[in-house]
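Researcher: For the annotation table, I need structure tokens for Methyltransferase. Please keep the output clean. Sequence:
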Amino acid sequence: MGFNHNDHYHPLLLDQLPPGPGVALDVGCGGGRFARRLAATGMHVEAIDRSGPMIELAGAAGSPGPGTISYRQADVVTEKLPEEAYDFISCLASLHHVPFDTVTKLRDALVPGGVLAVLGLGRPSTFADYARALVASPVNAVARVVVYAGERHSGGAAPR
């Protein structure tokens, strides 16, 4: 799996993890890259996505341990989440696809002191925002090519 611009933020998001192993919910997990990083810290991860093909892709990648990952197709809007069940909930570039009251539902699913980590997509509003957006597309395209070439040269994707 090639470059994904969300990867840049993974270390920052992982710095927000509460101490010790716990239970995490990764909402809109896509191909499971961040879920695997959570599991690598010892978290037990429930990873959900509305897309069946993405869940299949994520599940095929396995889990690096020591934590575990359970992937399943689910829509956070209609899913019944248990109250006070998760130490950490992540929504990476997914929350903008759901009604705002979903945030309340996610908050209620956190244990007291739990962390809701949101990586959002902001609407450009300043000249700098538009300039960054103009440059980001070609830079991301080049990064994808470089990462893909590196993976092909090394015989596969680096473990994540």
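Researcher: And a one-line annotation?
Model: The beta strands are 23-27, 44-49, 69-73, 86-92, 110-119.
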